[in-house]
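Sequence decides. Our protein:
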Amino acid sequence: MMTSASDLSSLAALLADETRAAMCLALLDGRAWTAGELAAHTHVAASTATEHLNRLVDGGLLVERRQGRHRYVQLADPSVAHLLEDLSARTEPRPDPVRGLRAVAANAALRRGRTCYDHLAGRLGVAVTDAMTEAGLLDQTGGFALTHAGLGWLTDTLGLGSEDLRPGKRPLARGCLDWTERRQHLAGTAGAKLCLKFFDNGWVARIGSGRAVRVTPNGQAALQDLLGLPGID
């Protein structure tokens, strides 16, 4: 089956509205949000937020979960996150408007390190990807692929179970174009498991309730020891 021009136009229309686009970008943190939280985040009335969310769910970009009286929404699957990050990277960079110190600091933190749905992005994600490539753990010559050494590194050195890295519907490794660095970072199952391991080991921690993350002192030592990475500034 081929996608029709009408189907493509309908998908584009979902993201053509700034409020809906802002909701989708917020959900790139990989977590489920309530309609009320997204209404507050986008500064719209609850009824307006519900209308936008219904369109996004009907269009297949979001899925909803019901828990008691609460309605939660999240990105439908990792491919939606990849689409959003890729589109963001293809927009023309614009100078940041003059804002308060808090907003400037928050933006700098996102660029330094963040989650892109379920994997690491920003300078941190790109630096880890580059270091893995230089160490022969990742092959980017014909796309993105873990090498035999890379699989061994993930299982033997980091302690991931081989069942965590079995092929499935989702690619084991894939490149995701970073919207701030304009370069690829590691996504796919390997990227997700690597990110989860970083959190579980306390090597990265979230900054507040958003997508931004910071490398902890233990993480700095681990990155230096495992990949020869200096501090992420």
Summary: The chain has two domains: 5-76, 101-227. Residues 46-58 form the longest helix (13 residues).
